[in-house]
Design brief:
Layout: H1 26-40, H2 44-71, H3 73-80, H4 90-105, H5 110-137, H6 144-147, H7 154-170, H8 177-208, H9 222-239, H10 245-249, H11 251-282, H12 294-313, H13 321-354
Helix pairs in contact: 1-2, 1-4, 1-12, 1-13, 2-3, 2-4, 4-5, 4-7, 5-7, 7-8, 7-9, 8-9, 9-11, 9-12, 11-12, 12-13
Amino acid sequence: MTASPAVPVDQSAPSPLQTLHPAYFALVMATGIVSIASFLLEFKAIAWALFYLNVLAYIILWLLFVARAIRHGAAMRADFASHARGVGFFTMIAGTCVLGSQFVVIAKLPSIALGLWYLGTALWVVLIYGVFTLLTVQAVKPVLTKGLNGGWLVAVVAAQSVSILGSQLSAGLGAWGEPVLFFCLVMWLGGGMLYIWLISMIFYRYTFFEMNPADLAPPYWINMGAVAISTLAGTFLIDAKSHSPFIVELMPFIKGVTLSFWATATWWIPMLITLGAWRHVYRRFPLRYDPLYWGAVFPLGMYTVCTFRLANVLDAPFLHVIPHYFIFVAWLAWGLTFLGLLAQLVGGAKSRFIGRPA
């Protein structure tokens, strides 16, 4: 019997590992925050399922990134120096700290969370200053419309995720608790200032340059997500007032800024929905899976959690109606994106199988 010929495969095409997007840790960010939102709203089974899935995803992604560094080091180095892709590495920081928050809130294992906080803080120092230095010293740089996107705001998310996890752990750190809280306060304020710098340029790009459907990539949802996580970081600082005198002194300021962050996040939601409708309905831009869509799922879960927490710390129970409905939006977005990922994985596996000689 003669074997049927294999379908020819383009050997020159880069492998999925070579082109692995630096922002793929947004999957961990999104899954982690939707898990935490589910836990807070008493959907414990969903929360635990997403927790275990997230631990697995985190391990797999680290293995893939290490393998990429070994086998495709040149491609990874090029990403570090790319204005479009370099900021994606900041999702490693946020993903690590969001997973740490899951270990605090869901698994009740602060010792593991502390290790993740140390790792997340170290990653923040290396990646934030490393990537921004590389982007700054380049001789040739892209124009604003090509180099700037909402993904740059992951720098804000990274800082606030370190602040949140540190605040969550500070009560159990004994004499180190107050210095850690001060560090978390500094990270919160620094992240907030970074948001102001970046969103000013993004809004300028929005309103004074031509906008094509392809330009409105999913990371623009981080416009909202960055201030939602800043809100959440503020709520943990407010909660820390019972064991920190300097937090007590700053309490009116912290509450005011935290509410301002939440108001800004809320303002962005109708705007982003409108722009999404313009992109996919009016301009008929195809809706297909992209790893960057995890960067759109994360803000939905984060808005759910930050509103829940804000309602508690400001004693505003009427706000609880928002997370009790918004969680369904977060689940829907996570589920659709996860199905897209599965479809891509199955499609890729089929392509490789068909391409093998019989």
